[in-house]
């Protein structure tokens, strides 16, 4: 080759390299804006808006119309602070509505009980049969009202468990995408089926085991209050506490498995990611460092998205479960108050035991609801934490 | 204090009844009935306040008023049957008294049939 | 004199009590006198008459009771 040609080739290479360098410097100088653009592009790629929209639909279905997930998401994205005051205000308004609703049912029961107390107090001579039958009729009315309330609560329980399960199933594709974007590939492979299994298993167990147990408990309560000879109180309590037990055992098992798997697989993943990074930056000549550094940028952006997405998911879970929890809580409080108020007024013990048995059952239902909510919240938390733990 | 009036009324009635009982037992029985009815009227008048309160509560809370009416009917039937039974037993006619009680029971059960109906329908709705 | 009044219905009528007691004593005395004087049938007639009068009064009272129950409980 002649000297001129050699020179030309060298000059050409120098120009190419300097152009690349300028390009590289430009990228670094843009800094934050670039981060924002990357975030937006990444968000579009991962269908972030779709995700937010589905969560929004779920929340609207469960009845909390005021809370706007979109605005909360935007706030989180920009300055990552949550407006707790307005949220709290809305939650309180829902709570007061539920308490008023439960109060209605309680007032009707209270009226019937006052009438019964009148009968009791005036026909005080002997337990003549007429008064016994009048007692029984009053008790039947009270039983009708309480059982109607119970059926309402049970169907609501079924609905909310369904809603939570479908929410988890909706979130999982997005979670998978985010986790892969931050590099936790092995974890996704393990967590994904585990999570779906947990969600559907909880739904199955609650619908087919826990709810029948609760219904049996209620039936025993009613029977033991109608007839004075047949005493099924302890059996009823046994059924309700065993259903609570089953749910807590399942909670513990699943959370244990989940945390174990995540800790194991996240270390595998960080090893794999670091290896790939080093390999790319060292062995691919010019663009290797560029690629591995931009990978960290992308991971940083997707970490923010993951945080926001995780926060929104947890918020959504809590909000969906909140309305039923508040309702059951208010019903339980009112039944306890009712039991306390009725005890001195009404002489017959059957009403007393009936109402306190019911309050116990509602306590169990509340415990189950809160337990399942905590399960979902903690598992989402663990999974979204994975996103941060892979690439530091 | 109206309760003094009630108590004195009852005492006077008892004294009169004892006086008349030896001469004319049937008159004594009629006196018993009168006195008992009189006191019961007073008691019911006093109950009307409570009952108005219950009524307004029931209207405000919007529950099913049919249940309340049935319960009150059953209560009143219980009272009146008890009253009649006592008077008959006082006169020594326990046979009539027990038959009256049975009739009262039957009527109460008949009245409470709609309640049992609705309870069963709710339960079958659950299953 | 009555001890209580509600919508014009007299409750706890002491007068009524004394009326009935008075009729009772009167009838008792009359029937004893008549039977001692040998008019057994008239004695029985006065007894019956007294009973019927008192019964009328009591039935009025009882119907008042049921009417009051109906209005108070709005059945």
Keywords:
heterotrimer, A: 392 residues, mainly alpha, 10 helices, 0% strand, B: 127 residues, 2 domains, 5 helices, 92% helix, flat
Describe this protein's structure:
The complex is a heterotrimer of chains A (392), B (127) and C (75). By secondary structure, chain A is mainly alpha-helical. Chain A has one domain. Chain A is built from ten helices and no strands. Chain A has helices at 3-30, 32-45, 48-61, 69-79, 84-122, 129-182, 185-226, 233-283, 288-345, 349-390. The radius of gyration of chain A is 31 Å and the shape is elongated. The model of chain A is unreliable at 25-31 (pLDDT under 50). By secondary structure, chain B is mainly α. Chain B folds into two domains: 1-49; 64-127. Chain B is built from five helices and no strands. Chain B has helices spanning 2-23, 25-61, 65-90, 94-111, 113-126. In chain B, helix 1 (2-23) runs antiparallel to helix 2 (25-61). The radius of gyration of chain B is 20 Å and the shape is flat. With 75 residues, chain C is α+β, with helices and mostly antiparallel strands. Chain C has one domain (11-73). Chain C contains two helices and two strands; from the N terminus they run ββαα. Chain C has a two-stranded antiparallel ribbon. Chain C is elongated and about 55 Å long. The model of chain C has no long low-confidence stretch (mean pLDDT 80). The chains are: A mainly alpha (392), B mainly alpha (127), C alpha+beta (75). At the B-C interface, helix 1, helix 2 and helix 3 of B face strand 1, strand 2, helix 1 and helix 2 of C.
Mean pLDDT of chain B: 83
The N- to C-terminal Cα distance of chain A equals: 51 Å
Q: Tell me the major beta sheet of chain A.
A: none
Quaternary structure state of the chains depicted: heterotrimer
- Biggest contact: B-C, 36 and 36 residues
Task: Count helical runs of chain B.
Answer: 5
* N/C terminus separation of chain B: 57 Å
Helix content of chain A: over 70%
Rg over C-alpha atoms of chain B, rounded to the nearest angstrom: 20 Å
| Tally of individual domains of chain B | 2
Residue ranges of chain B: pLDDT <50 for 5 or more in a row? none
Report the principal-axis shape of chain B: flat
Roughly what fraction of the amino acids of chain B lie in strands?
under 5%
Q: What ranges of chain A have pLDDT less than 50 throughout 5 or more consecutive residues?
A: 25-31
């Amino acid at each position: 080759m002649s000297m001129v040609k050699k020179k030309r080739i060298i000059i050409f290479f120098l120009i190419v390299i300097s152009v690349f360098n300028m390009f590289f410097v430009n990228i670094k100088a843009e800094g934050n804006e670039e981060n924002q653009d990357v975030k937006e592009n990444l968000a579009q790629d991962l269908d972030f808006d779709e995700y937010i929209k589905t969560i929004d639909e779920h929340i609207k279905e469960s009845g909390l119309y005021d809370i706007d997930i979109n605005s909360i998401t935007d706030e989180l994205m920009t300055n990552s602070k949550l407006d707790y005051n307005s949220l709290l205000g809305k939650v309180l308004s829902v709570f007061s509505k539920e308490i008023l609703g439960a109060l209605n049912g309680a007032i009707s029961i209270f009226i019937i009980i006052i009438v019964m107390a009148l009968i009791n107090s005036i026909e005080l001579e002997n337990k003549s049969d007429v008064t016994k039958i009048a007692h029984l009729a009053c008790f039947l009315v009270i039983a009708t009202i309480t059982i109607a309330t119970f059926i309402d609560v049970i169907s609501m329980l079924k609905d909310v468990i369904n809603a939570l399960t479908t929410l988890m199933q909706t979130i999982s594709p997005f979670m998978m995408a985010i986790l892969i974007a931050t590099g936790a590939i092995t974890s996704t492979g393990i967590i994904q089926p585990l999570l779906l299994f947990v969600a559907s298993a909880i739904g199955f167990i609650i619908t087919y085991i826990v709810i029948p147990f609760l219904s049996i408990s209620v039936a025993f309560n009613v029977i033991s209050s109608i007839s004075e000879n047949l005493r099924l109180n302890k059996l009823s309590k046994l059924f309700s506490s065993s259903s609570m037990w089953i749910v807590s055992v399942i909670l513990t098992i699943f959370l244990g498995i989940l945390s174990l798997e995540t800790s194991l697989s996240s270390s595998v993943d960080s090893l794999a990611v670091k290896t790939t990074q080093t390999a790319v930056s060292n062995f691919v000549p010019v663009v290797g460092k560029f690629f591995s550094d931009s990978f960290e940028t992308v991971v940083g952006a997707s970490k923010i998205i993951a945080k926001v997405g995780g926060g929104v998911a947890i918020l959504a879970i809590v909000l969906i479960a909140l309305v039923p929890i508040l309702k059951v809580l208010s019903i339980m409080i009112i039944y306890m108050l009712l039991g306390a108020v009725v005890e001195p007024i009404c002489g017959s013990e059957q009403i007393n035991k009936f109402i306190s048995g019911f309050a116990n059952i509602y306590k169990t239902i509340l415990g189950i609801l809160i337990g399942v909510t905590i399960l979902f919240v903690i598992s989402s938390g663990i999974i979204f934490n994975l996103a941060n733990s892979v690439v530091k | 204090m109206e309760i003094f009036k009630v108590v004195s009324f009852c005492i006077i009635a008892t004294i009169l009844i004892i006086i008349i009982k030896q001469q004319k037992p049937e008159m004594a029985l009629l006196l018993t009935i009168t006195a008992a009815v009189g006191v019961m009227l007073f008691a019911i008048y006093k109950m009307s306040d409570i009952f108005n309160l219950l009524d307004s509560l029931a209207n405000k809370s919007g529950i099913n008023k049919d249940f309340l009416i049935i319960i009150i009917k059953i209560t009143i039937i219980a009272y009146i049957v008890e009253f009649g039974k006592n008077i008959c037993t006082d006169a020594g006619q326990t046979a009539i008294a027990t038959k009256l009680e049975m009739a009262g029971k039957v009527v109460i059960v008949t009245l409470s049939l709609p309640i049992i109906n609705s309870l069963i329908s709710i339960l079958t709705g659950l299953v | 004199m009555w001890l209580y009044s509600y919508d014009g219905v007299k409750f706890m009528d002491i007068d009524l009590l004394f009326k009935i007691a008075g009729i009772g004593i009167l009838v008792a005395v009359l029937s004893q006198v008549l039977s001692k004087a040998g008019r057994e049938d008239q004695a029985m007639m006065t007894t019956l008459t007294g009973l019927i009068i008192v019964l009328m009064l009591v039935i009025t009272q009882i119907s008042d009771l049921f009417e009051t129950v109906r209005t108070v409980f709005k059945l």
